[in-house]
């Protein structure tokens, strides 16, 4: 039993923007740490110096903060086991690499990529695992020194025990057993001197005191290698939980083509953090409570025993459901802030609350709020084709009565519609569609009883004049 304080980690490679799959892994680790009163660590795996890490590192930190997934230790937060970027930990990796070399558990391999590719193809053709043959494992010290003297490049491999079995208990997938002969000696340092990913990853987890590694199941085959490395170095092995991957509707790993979007894109569209929390926390994990939950409640009810083994299927409709739920829980002030500056610039201060009350049930994103602000408070009205057709079908008499109704009843929508109903014997769509169409340019939307007072008599009168005038012109042409 690991007696160290509970600690999880999120260790992204800052080579691009965070997407839904990445952020779900971060969320799961955050919820587990929060539930246990432990530490959530952020570490940057930025060993590839060619990818513009600084820009993406700042972007992913901004995304995590916007989502409320604050880390207790790591990049920008400090801690006792820094630095927290792999690019700054070269001396630490060298120390442990040297220990393996001096103990004879690491050796140089001079095999070329061409030789290794042929060996892999031969093994696969014979139905065998494409493991390394061990060709350079038996080189004498003199052979090794002679090859280095000739300037031959070499990778360094970890010497795996032959004929052994490695077992561990995965917190999601249960007992795992690997035959060491199927793994073979694996590369821990490349020929250019840089350490392999899972070498750095394993050492950092152990040295930084991570007690539970929660990551995608695509890393499952790395785990036996990492456990062997840590045991060889006398370091504490964390527990592991390999979660199912997120897939698209076609069952393939989620990609931009199948709906995956970056957190930045979701934020710009107007998704709320609470919507993303509640959707992702249920993507491959089950809750008995299907209401919108705070981060605290999501954490309190989160459990590795409720993580699913089957692939988690991304469902845009479910994400939209949680967006609507999150909006319902916002206060008027929060709704107003979420609508954004372009809306704020159009809505008169004294009509702010009336506008929110009118549109909030029909608005999911700021762009939709802006469209209704433009419809209500500007003199430029875009008319949809169905709306134009409804106006034409209603006929000139409809709008003559509508003008008189507005003069008599002002912005009392019920009284206006009652007068139209009584004068023309129209009801249902024949009444409400042309009425909505001429005033908003749409056939659907918020309640007209709430919109008409915001549009006002003058603007309504001008729209009736313009669009019924178009109707008359069309009829004359016929």
Structure characteristics:
three-stranded parallel beta sheet; mainly alpha; three-stranded antiparallel beta sheet; 478 residues; 50% helix; 22 helices; single chain
Quick structural overview:
The protein has 478 residues and is mainly α.
Give a verbal description of the structure:
The protein is mainly alpha-helical and 478 residues long. The chain contains 22 helices and twelve strands. The protein has helices at 20-36, 53-66, 90-102, 113-125, 141-149, 180-183, 197-207, 222-232, 263-269, 273-280, 295-300, 316-328, 332-339, 341-346, 352-359, 366-377, 385-394, 396-409, 413-424, 429-440, 448-455, 457-477; strands at 7-10, 39-42, 73-74, 106-109, 155-158, 165-170, 174-179, 186-189, 212-216, 239-243, 246-247, 312-313. Helix 2 (53-66) links the parallel strand 2 and strand 3. Helix 7 packs across helix 8 (222-232), helix 10 crosses helix 12 and helix 17 packs across helix 20. The chain is elongated and about 105 Å long. The termini are far apart.
Q: Topology of this protein?
A:
Layout: E1 7-10, H1 20-36, E2 39-42, H2 53-66, E3 73-74, H3 90-102, E4 106-109, H4 113-125, H5 141-149, E5 155-158, E6 165-170, E7 174-179, H6 180-183, E8 186-189, H7 197-207, E9 212-216, H8 222-232, E10 239-243, E11 246-247, H9 263-269, H10 273-280, H11 295-300, E12 312-313, H12 316-328, H13 332-339, H14 341-346, H15 352-359, H16 366-377, H17 385-394, H18 396-409, H19 413-424, H20 429-440, H21 448-455, H22 457-477
Parallel strand pairs: 1-2, 2-3, 9-10, 11-12
Antiparallel strand pairs: 4-5, 5-8, 6-7
């Amino acid at each position: 039993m690991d007696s160290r304080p509970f600690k999880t980690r999120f260790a992204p490679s800052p080579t691009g923007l965070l997407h839904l799959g990445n952020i779900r892994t971060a969320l799961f680790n955050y919820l587990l740490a929060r539930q246990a009163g432990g530490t959530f660590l952020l570490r940057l795996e930025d060993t590839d110096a060619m990818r513009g890490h600084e820009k993406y590192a700042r972007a992913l930190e901004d995304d995590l903060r916007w989502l409320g997934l604050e880390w207790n230790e790591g990049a920008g937060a400090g801690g006792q086991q820094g630095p927290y970027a792999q690019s700054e930990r070269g001396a630490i990796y060298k120390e442990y690499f040297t220990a393996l070399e001096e103990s004879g558990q690491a050796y140089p391999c001079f095999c070329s990529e061409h030789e290794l590719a042929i060996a892999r193809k031969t093994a696969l053709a014979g139905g065998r695992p494409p493991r390394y043959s061990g060709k350079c494992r038996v080189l004498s010290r003199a052979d090794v020194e002679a090859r280095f003297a000739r300037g031959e490049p070499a990778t360094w491999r970890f010497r795996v025990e032959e004929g052994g079995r490695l077992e561990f208990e995965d917190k999601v997938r249960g007992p795992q057993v690997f035959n060491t002969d199927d793994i073979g000696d694996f590369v821990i340092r490349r020929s250019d001197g840089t350490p392999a990913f899972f070498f750095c990853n394993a050492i950092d987890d152990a040295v930084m005191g991570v007690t539970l590694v929660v990551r995608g199941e695509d890393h499952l085959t790395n785990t036996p290698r990492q456990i062997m490395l840590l045991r060889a170095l006398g370091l504490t092995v964390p527990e592991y939980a390999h979660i199912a991957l997120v897939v698209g509707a076609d069952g393939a790993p989620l990609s931009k083509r199948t709906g995956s979007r970056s957190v930045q894109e979701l934020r710009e569209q107007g998704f709320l953090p609470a919507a993303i929390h509640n959707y992702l926390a249920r993507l491959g994990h089950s809750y008995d409570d299907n209401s919108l939950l705070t981060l605290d409640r999501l954490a309190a009810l989160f459990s590795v025993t409720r993580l699913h083994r089957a692939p988690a299927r991304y469902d845009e409709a479910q994400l939209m459901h949680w967006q609507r739920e999150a909006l319902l829980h916002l206060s008027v002030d929060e709704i107003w802030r979420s609508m954004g500056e372009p809306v704020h610039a159009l809505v008169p201060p004294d009509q702010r609350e009336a506008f929110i009350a009118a549109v909030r049930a029909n608005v999911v994103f700021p762009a939709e709020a802006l469209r209704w602000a433009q419809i209500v408070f500007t003199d430029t009205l875009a008319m949809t084709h169905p709306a134009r057709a409804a106006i034409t079908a209603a006929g000139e008499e409809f709008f003559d009565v509508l003008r008189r109704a507005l003069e008599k009843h002002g912005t009392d929508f019920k009284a206006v519609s009652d007068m139209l109903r009584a004068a023309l014997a129209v009801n249902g769509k024949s009444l409400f569609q042309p009425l909505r169409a001429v005033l908003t340019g749409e056939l659907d939307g918020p309640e007209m009883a709430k919109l008409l007072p915001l549009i006002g008599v003058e603007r309504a009168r001008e729209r009736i004049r313009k669009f019924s005038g178009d109707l008359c012109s069309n009829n004359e042409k016929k």
